């Protein structure tokens, strides 16, 4: 394709996209296909010779579109919004057209400098303290564009881990880093995104998952109690992940309470505002931000609630040097003469290569202005309250959690089964698309305002569909359900046996695949708060305070090991091969010898049979 044909095809593509979005409501919101549908429609081998563009676009409509879930559809109310706007789309087009790879300032100065500028713009727009901004006087902070909130969580955890190990090495210069790592503990709420657990697995650190309060909010007292317990056991609390706008119900952890606790224990506080963060450009919605000054890092996704296309997750740190020290790799071929005077974003994240993503943010902010973006967010909040009002007027339904921003969690009064049946029926019809969540062991349905141009008519239509299906579900005659159940019993009995065996195998496999450090804090047979060992009181040890005034004291106690538990763990784990070599030897002696390399002293609990505290 040459430039002349590109001009023609590019104009055709713009028309195709505009027509698609203008007529999207004519399509079914979710595809009526089954897994593997496309495999039968596409050839087994790639074409040897060029194909006509018309044929390619015909296949898009005939083969691809039937399998697309239409996230911009007015009947799509699942998950969270997928950012979409014409200015963002044009920014993506230009960025891809320029084709620069901005891993350093020298690789593309405008790519780096615009990213720094727009991150300061957005930081000011959402009310971040000045220490998070690049151009504030005497600031050590700054912002960077990452690929996703998951990436932000992982990168911040790596930075916290590296910083804590540096501090512990000052206190214990002769202790191996692996031993120090084994004592580090991270924390998050049960309502935190699953990416936190994945990050802990990849960072090879322990993770303790905490219970939130009745409003699904993690509180400071809960965190403080478990941190005290862990410190008494000789563990090192080093990282706390909090969420502003959880996935299940858009709840908010209490930063004002959690922040001082993190400061007391010297733990890195990361704040994930993936969905809700964009809403803080509205001053009246910034209440949950109280306490943000305690945070070490913060992120939110304009690709969720600020009309910007994926991928685009913005991350700020209060001390950029703590972040880059964990990630710097500096081969000669990437160095340049302006390294001391500029930012090289290759040191701020995992990938080396970086797209010119700042362009689409720049286009969006300039095209809508702060006022236009505020109007969009407030409209979504207003429409969510309209849906909430519908739910509250209908005695059959209940609102399952406090309503925040554009998300409403509701349910039909009754059992979890009837709510599951209701949602399954609605989604199967293709008239709406929603997803469930579990709150306090109750099956709830999430209704999220997603479309950029959503209207009151869209909300009213969705409620009427829900009411109609609820009536159908409730009016199903009990005897029909009973007869249907009787017919299914023989088949279900056989299916249950197969299912149980499959689940057992999956659980057994998962037990070994998941990180031991993640499993450790959730398995009472391994994690036993009754086993406590502290350094002698006459030999207190505190780490050396670093140059940064933000560094807090971190203490580490001698390792504590339960031999019976460890032996059981080794028998269940991949270390069986090691034990096989000692088949005819004393296994306890082998365990003792192996673990002695990790600690000078080993303590066996006086009574292993005692019930562990939780």
UniProtKB/TrEMBL annotation:
Alphabetical GO biological process terms: amino acid metabolic process; carboxylic acid metabolic process
PROSITE patterns in the cross-refs: DDC_GAD_HDC_YDC
Entry keywords, A to Z: Decarboxylase, Lyase, Pyridoxal phosphate
Keyword Lyase: yes
Pfam families according to UniProt: Pyridoxal_deC
InterPro entries in alphabetical order: Aromatic_deC, PyrdxlP-dep_de-COase, PyrdxlP-dep_Trfase, PyrdxlP-dep_Trfase_major, PyrdxlP-dep_Trfase_small, Pyridoxal-P_BS
Domain of life: Eukaryota
Residue positions where N6-(pyridoxal phosphate)lysine is found in the record: 304
Entry GO MF terms: carboxy-lyase activity; pyridoxal phosphate binding
A cellular-component GO term for this protein: cytoplasm
Signal sequence range: none
CDD domains listed in its UniProt record: DOPA_deC_like
Cofactor: pyridoxal 5'-phosphate
Region (Disordered): 532-557
Similarity annotation: Belongs to the group II decarboxylase family.
PANTHER family given in the database record: GROUP II PYRIDOXAL-5-PHOSPHATE DECARBOXYLASE, MIP05841P
Protein name (Swiss-Prot/TrEMBL): Tyrosine decarboxylase
Species the sequence originates in: Scylla paramamosain
């Amino acid at each position: 394709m040459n430039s002349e044909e590109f001009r023609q095809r590019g104009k055709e593509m713009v028309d195709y996209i505009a027509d698609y979005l203008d007529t999207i409501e004519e399509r079914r919101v979710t595809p009526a296909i089954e897994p593997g549908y496309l495999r039968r429609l596409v050839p087994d081998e790639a074409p040897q010779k060029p194909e006509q563009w018309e044929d390619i676009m015909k296949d898009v409509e005939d083969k691809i579109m039937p399998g697309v879930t239409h996230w911009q559809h007015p009947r799509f109310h699942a998950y969270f919004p997928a950012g979409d706007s014409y200015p963002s789309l044009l920014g993506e087009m230009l960025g891809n057209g320029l084709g620069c790879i901005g891993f350093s300032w020298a690789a593309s100065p405008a790519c780096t400098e615009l990213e720094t500028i727009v991150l300061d713009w957005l930081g000011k727009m959402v009310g971040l303290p000045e220490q998070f901004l690049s151009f504030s006087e005497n600031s050590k902070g700054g912002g960077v564009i990452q690929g996703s909130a998951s990436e932000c969580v992982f990168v911040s955890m790596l930075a916290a881990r590296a910083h804590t190990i540096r501090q512990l090495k000052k206190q214990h210069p002769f202790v191996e880093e692996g031993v120090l790592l084994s004592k580090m503990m991270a924390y998050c709420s049960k309502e935190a995104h699953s990416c936190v657990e994945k990050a802990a697995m990849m960072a090879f650190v322990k993770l303790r998952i905490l219970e939130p309060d009745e409003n699904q909010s993690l509180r400071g007292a809960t965190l403080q109690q478990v941190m005290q317990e862990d410190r008494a056991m000789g563990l090192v609390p080093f990282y706390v992940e909090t969420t502003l706008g959880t996935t299940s119900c858009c709840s908010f952890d209490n930063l004002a309470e959690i922040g001082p606790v993190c400061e007391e224990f010297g733990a890195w506080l990361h704040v994930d505002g993936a969905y809700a963060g964009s809403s803080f450009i509205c001053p009246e919605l910034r209440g949950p931000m109280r306490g943000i000054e305690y945070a070490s890092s913060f992120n939110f996704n304009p690709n969720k609630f600020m009309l910007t296309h994926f991928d685009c997750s913005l991350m700020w740190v209060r001390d950029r040097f703590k972040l880059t020290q964990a990630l710097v790799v500096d081969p000669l071929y990437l160095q340049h003469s302006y390294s001391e005077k500029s930012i090289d974003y290759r040191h701020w994240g995992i990938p080396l290569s970086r797209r010119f993503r700042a362009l689409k943010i720049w286009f969006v902010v300039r095209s809508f202005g702060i006022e236009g973006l505020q109007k969009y967010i407030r409209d979504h909040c207003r429409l969510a309250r309209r849906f909430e009002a519908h739910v509250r007027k209908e005695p059959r339904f209940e609102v399952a959690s406090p309503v925040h921003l554009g998300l409403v969690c509701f349910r039909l009064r009754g059992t979890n089964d009837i709510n599951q049946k209701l949602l399954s029926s609605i989604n199967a019809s293709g008239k709406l698309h929603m997803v469930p969540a579990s709150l306090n062991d109750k099956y709830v349905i999430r209704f999220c305002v997603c479309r950029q141009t959503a209207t009151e008519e869209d909300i009213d239509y969705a409620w009427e569909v829900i009411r109609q299906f609820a009536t159908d579900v409730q009016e199903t005659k009990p005897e029909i359900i009973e007869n249907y159940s009787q017919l299914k019993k023989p088949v279900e009995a056989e299916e249950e046996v197969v299912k149980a065996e499959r689940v057992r195998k999956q659980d057994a496999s998962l037990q070994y695949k998941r990180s031991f450090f993640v499993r450790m804090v959730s398995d009472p047979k391994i994690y036993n708060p009754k086993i406590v060992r502290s350094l002698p009181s006459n030999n207190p040890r505190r780490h050396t305070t670093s140059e940064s005034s933000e560094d807090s004291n971190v203490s580490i106690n001698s390792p504590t090991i339960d031999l019976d538990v460890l032996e059981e763990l080794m028998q269940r784990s991949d270390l069986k091969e090691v034990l096989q070599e000692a088949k005819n030897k004393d296994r306890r002696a082998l365990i003792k010898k192996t673990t002695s390399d990790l600690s000078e002293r080993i303590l066996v609990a006086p009574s292993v049979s005692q019930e562990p505290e939780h």
